[in-house]
């Protein structure tokens, strides 16, 4: 019997954006809605039913139920609410605790975005949201503002609006996550980069990786780019100016992907990834999923202690960092970021070369704050090779 194809779902960011757009449309037109359509950053159209619709004179509220598809997501089936109301308060004060967007026209009034019940607030550095503001990540913020701005434009309204996103179950669900350790208190984060949740069946993912590598090999390809996920894909396209048609996304199955590449007799691999994922590889972690443990700071400290004079104070700063972005800032403040990243890249290259049975591998690791953090010695030449191949094909 053939196995049923796994079903994708939508991120909390997509749900929040749909609810916010719907609430704004209802408030500004006075017409209740049953569902809301929007296009995700990946280009997929979402048509989401609305629940708990309340339309009042000065505000409108509705909810979208999170559907994670076949992904075992902690937020699956949770209701994500958005309330949109006319804003007549102090804009300067609102900016202190809200995200704000002035809209598409310079003369447009601000849109404000804040968090209600069950959405966490950021209390520590190193995350993609500023301290003191809600844990609503950049892509979902953009989606929410775009949706509400579209509703505002269609209604011909230019006044300021306040958007409040909430998730009543969020605080309880957050207990099942690492949010408190990361410095997100009071609830969950609104997340997403593509707007789509892809199922995380290990068997399905590894089969897809194997198939993609094998198809390239059968087509005569002997060079390939490997990257763990969305951050790496975006970096490859936007910073390295390379095409992901040359690449394969390996998710957390990094060791296994290099083994697969060796089985298909690839000769050259460009391995690109965010430091938060690749630092685990430097420590020999074969599968980088968090369920297998998190030794990122311990591994980073091990790299640092091998190449610089260390102190107990610096050790504690690194080990106490919540994210690798925060740790990179600490290293930068001590003027040791470059030598430590050189050692990190050396260890990554040594490890993946071993996993692949001796394939020629070059490594690039980056952070969202600093861009490229480290490159192996031959990475530029291999990047140029891929660039030339892209140019020749155009």
UniProtKB/TrEMBL annotation:
GO terms for molecular function: cobalt-precorrin-5B C1-methyltransferase activity. It comes from the Bacteria. The keyword tRNA processing does not apply. Coiled coil: none annotated. Its EC number is 2.1.1.195. It is an enzyme of class 2 (transferase). Pathway: Cofactor biosynthesis; adenosylcobalamin biosynthesis; cob(II)yrinate a,c-diamide from sirohydrochlorin (anaerobic route): step 6/10. GO terms for biological process: anaerobic cobalamin biosynthetic process; methylation. Keywords: Cobalamin biosynthesis, Methyltransferase, S-adenosyl-L-methionine, Transferase. Pfam families: CbiD. The keyword Membrane does not apply. InterPro entries: CbiD, CbiD_sf. It catalyses: Co-precorrin-5B + S-adenosyl-L-methionine = Co-precorrin-6A + S-adenosyl-L-homocysteine. HAMAP family: CbiD. NCBIfam families: cbiD. Belongs to the CbiD family. This is Cobalt-precorrin-5B C(1)-methyltransferase. It comes from Lacrimispora algidixylanolytica. The lineage of its organism: Bacteria, Bacillati, Bacillota, Clostridia, Lachnospirales.
């Amino acid at each position: 019997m053939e196995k049923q194809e796994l079903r994708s779902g939508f991120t909390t960011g997509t749900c929040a954006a749909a609810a916010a757009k719907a609430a704004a449309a209802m408030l500004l037109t006075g017409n209740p809605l049953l569902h809301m359509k929007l296009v995700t950053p990946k280009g997929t159209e979402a048509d989401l039913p609305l629940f708990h619709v309340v339309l009042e004179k000065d505000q409108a509220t509705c909810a979208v139920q999170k559907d994670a598809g076949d992904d075992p997501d902690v937020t699956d089936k949770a209701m994500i609410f958005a309330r949109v109301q006319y804003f007549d308060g102090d804009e300067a004060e609102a900016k202190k605790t809200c995200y704000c967007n002035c809209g598409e026209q310079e003369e447009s009034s601000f849109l404000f975005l804040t968090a209600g019940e069950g959405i966490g607030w950021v209390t520590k550095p190193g995350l993609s949201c500023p301290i003191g503001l809600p844990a609503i990540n950049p892509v979902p913020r953009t989606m929410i503002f775009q949706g509400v701005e579209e509703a505002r434009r269609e209604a011909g309204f230019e006044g300021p609006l306040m958007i409040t996103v909430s998730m009543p179950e969020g605080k309880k669900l957050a207990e099942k996550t690492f949010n408190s350790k990361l410095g997100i208190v009071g609830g969950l984060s609104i997340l997403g980069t593509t707007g789509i949740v892809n199922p995380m069946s290990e068997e399905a993912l590894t089969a897809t990786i194997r198939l993609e590598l094998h198809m390239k090999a059968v087509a005569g390809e002997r060079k390939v780019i490997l990257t763990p996920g969305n951050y790496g894909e975006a970096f490859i396209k936007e910073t390295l100016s390379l095409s992901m048609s040359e690449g394969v996304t390996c998710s957390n199955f990094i060791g296994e992907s290099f083994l697969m590449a060796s089985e298909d007799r690839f000769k050259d691999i460009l391995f690109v990834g965010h430091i938060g994922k690749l630092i685990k590889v430097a420590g020999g972690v074969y599968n980088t999923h968090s369920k297998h443990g998190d030794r990122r700071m311990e591994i980073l400290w091990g790299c640092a202690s091998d190449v610089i004079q260390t102190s107990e104070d610096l050790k504690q700063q690194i080990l106490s960092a919540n994210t690798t972005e925060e740790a990179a800032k600490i290293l930068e403040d001590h003027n040791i970021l470059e030598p430590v990243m050189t050692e990190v890249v050396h260890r990554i290259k040594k490890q993946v070369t071993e996993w692949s049975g001796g394939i020629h591998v070059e490594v690039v690791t980056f952070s969202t704050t600093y861009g490229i953090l480290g490159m192996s010695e031959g990475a530029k030449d291999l990047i140029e090779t891929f660039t030339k191949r892209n140019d020749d094909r155009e």
